[in-house]
Design a protein that fits this description.
By secondary structure, this protein is of the alpha+beta class. About 35% of the residues lie in helices and about 30% in strands. The longest helix has 13 residues. The model has no long low-confidence stretch (mean pLDDT about 90).
């Protein structure tokens, strides 16, 4: 059973800016979104629980340099996307 991916308005703006600056990563980004919807625990996503100021959020990998932070609500099978970018931008 798949998860519902929720695109907040702020995430959509952030993702549009990020994709404009990183057109070479578009295909991998879209593939990552499909995979997280199907199975957010897939090993290639490298799902991590975050700590500190970002406690309660998780991150997944687009590839080695880029991550997506997200809120994973398992009880509702929802994934709320929070931010996308390189490690410095999302953490």
């Amino acid at each position: 059973m798949s998860y519902a991916v929720v695109f907040t308005e702020s995430y959509s703006r952030s993702a549009a800016r990020w994709l404009k600056g990183h057109p070479e990563a578009r295909q991998q980004y879209l593939k990552t979104l499909q995979l997280v919807q199907a199975n957010p625990f897939h090993p290639s996503l490298r799902l991590q629980a975050l700590s500190g100021a970002l406690k309660g959020l998780h991150s997944i990998s687009i590839h080695l340099s880029y991550r997506i932070t997200l809120e994973l609500l398992i009880e509702n099978r929802q994934i709320i996307l929070v931010n996308v970018g390189d490690r410095e931008a999302v953490y």
